[in-house]
Amino acid sequence: MLEKFTVIRGRAVPLRGEDIDTDRIIPARFMKALTFEGLGQYLFYDERFDEQGNPKPHPLNDPRYQGASILLVESGFGSGSSREHAPQAIKRAGFKAIIGESFAEIFFGNATAIGLPCVALAPEDLAVLFQMVEANPEVEVEIDLVQKEVRFGNRVAPLFLREEAREALVQGLWDPIGELLEAGELLDAFDRKLPYPRRAE
Amino acid sequence: MGKTLYEKVWEAHEVRKLRNGQSQLFIDLHLLHEVTSPQAFGMLKDLGLKVRYPHRTFATVDHIVPTHDRTEPFQDPLAQSMLDALRQNTQEHGITFFDLGSGNQGIVHVIGPQLGLTQPGMTIACGDSHTSTHGAFGAVAFGIGTSQVRDVLATQTIAAQKLKVRRINVEGRLAPGVYAKDVILHIIRHLGVKGGLGYAYEYGGSTVEAMDMESRMTLCNMSIEGGARIGYVNPDETTFRYLEGRPYAPKGAEWEEAKRRWLSFRSDPDAPYDDVVTFRAEEIAPTVTWGINPGQAIPIDGRIPFLEELPEEERPVAEEALAYMGFRPGQPIKGVPIQVAFIGSCTNARLSDLREVARYLKGHKVKKGVRALVVPGSEWVAKRAEEEGIAEVFREAGFEWRNPGCSMCLAMNPDRLEGDELAASSSNRNYKGRMGSPRGRTVLMSPLMVAAAAVAGEIADAREVFGVVGAR
């Protein structure tokens, strides 16, 4: 059985920046591997470390945010390459959910399919949350996928998440492989019906 | 009420509804490469599953291939292990693999069309965001993540969500020296890098109808840079002329039947769109980027914008871009010195791109101090370019003529920028660090503009450098 995501609680790391692309989340050179294992250590590598490998000022290097499990981002997060390495690195670095204003299509799908919920807030709510977390890293954030709201301080903000994705996360159906396999012989009918590239030699 | 191509293809491939409301969508053609597949084969193994319809998957190696010396074992053992894994996985599961030296190895989005694997009305998926390229044929083609690669291998389907459709008309004639690359950079500049979120882009209008297939591929290739997962052009006679006689295209009686079927997928004249946008071809100049995403672009005669000129929401990224690129607001982009010139990538490494550049480059020399690379998109393109004398034109001009692969576009191989080098590039992304150096800088442009920059040693107007007829 897959995990059912209902309420996710934790502290958040504020990561400012619009249109953060997946090349930045995980630079291509760290993708030369046969598995996703160990990717967490390379998360935002070039933003966090200089060319000699020394840490640079970055929210993820900030001791005040160590142990946070929610990544706070702005709009257009995860644009660019379709690499699943990006959400995998985020998840393997210990994050349980991402809150932002909007997400790139493929990134959102990849994240959802590995059980990493990406929820959106209205810009005014997101701005308040950023300010609150930047002022006080100890703020507890609660993402409630059942009530469809995010709670922080004394604020309750409605969250936006595509209904299909929310259903999948709440019901523990976020990895669709089991259900896809259930189609069984129906698939053979499609394979027979739909032409495919056949070399006519 | 009519339907769009997107809707018709969707309906023909929807297997059933899933419990969460998504659709199970059948994938006609699955393209595979070495970077996003080994983990998927690993997941299959863990689940005890087989590849269900191996005849629908085709593989090649592109991202990690060295373009200079491809002798095996590669100098980079990690790259070699990825190639070995792909060889083993495809062999074990009965998947056709276009290996190095097969004559058909190349960038996955170059070889699909070239072999006639890509056909109208198909659903096509690949673990690479530039799968949108194949939409040029009137296919519904999109990039997927590795878990979905696993899903396609195991079931030939994915769980998918229907998109809205935006019709993008481009009307009129492109001026000489203006190409599909300029058209798509112009579109993204105006609609934004997030403008396509939730949409499939349908490109049409007289400019697009007049484009050859390889130009349409360039256009569709960068749909993802505008935030749209899918871009497509309705199939027409141009599509059929391109496909006829290709190795995997239907033949004989099947050919006529296929054409009828393909035409039936075209969007109906009265199809409703969720949005319609129109651009004028005459307003499009050779376009170059100045920032750190493909939407930060200006005409070659333009100046780098002042923050105050930009909409408020674009200013933070613009500020970040100015700092990273080391540009001054108000500075003309023309005349900025370059250190590297790169012609290649799935956007612009096709035979027509190389032919067009060679036509103008003949007799010119790359400026001293500029490292200039041309990387053909496939072994087939490379061979034809040699036969036609194109390769020799590049060599004589001072370009390094390399072996096919993704090369510098994402630098998962030895080709990369050093330090804060600035590259004029025909690739698709100018993100921070994209070309392999965390401080490296990329200016995107058409292949002819890259050649002009290589010759001038600075960002230049190809129409002036090469005396393209019609230049102002």
List the helices and strands and how they pair.
The complex is a heterodimer of chains A (201) and B (472).
Chain A: E1 7-10, E2 12-14, H1 22-25, H2 45-48, E3 70-72, H3 85-92, E4 97-100, H4 105-113, E5 118-121, H5 123-135, E6 141-144, E7 149-152, E8 155-160, H6 163-171, H7 177-182, H8 185-193
Parallel strand pairs in A: 2-3, 3-4, 4-5
Antiparallel strand pairs in A: 1-6, 5-8, 6-7, 7-8
Chain B: H1 5-13, E1 14-17, E2 23-26, E3 29-32, H2 38-47, E4 57-60, H3 77-93, E5 96-98, H4 108-114, E6 123-126, E7 140-143, H5 146-155, E8 157-160, E9 164-171, H6 180-191, E10 199-204, H7 206-210, H8 213-221, E11 230-233, H9 237-243, H10 253-264, E12 275-280, E13 287-289, E14 297-299, H11 315-325, E15 340-343, H12 351-361, E16 371-374, H13 379-387, H14 390-397, E17 400-401, E18 422-425, E19 441-444, H15 447-456, H16 462-465
Outline the structure in words:
The complex is a heterodimer of chains A (201) and B (472). Chain A is of the alpha/beta class and 201 residues long. Helices cover 31% and strands 16% of the residues of chain A. In chain A, strands 1-6-7-8-5-4-3-2 form an eight-stranded mixed sheet. The longest helix of chain A has 13 residues. The termini of chain A are far apart. The mean pLDDT of chain A is 96. By secondary structure, chain B is of the alpha/beta class. In chain B, the strands form five sheets. Chain B has a five-stranded parallel sheet. A five-stranded parallel sheet of chain B has the order 17-16-15-18-19, covered by helices on one side. A four-stranded parallel sheet of chain B has the order 11-10-9-12. Chain B is globular. The chains are: A alpha/beta (201), B alpha/beta (472).
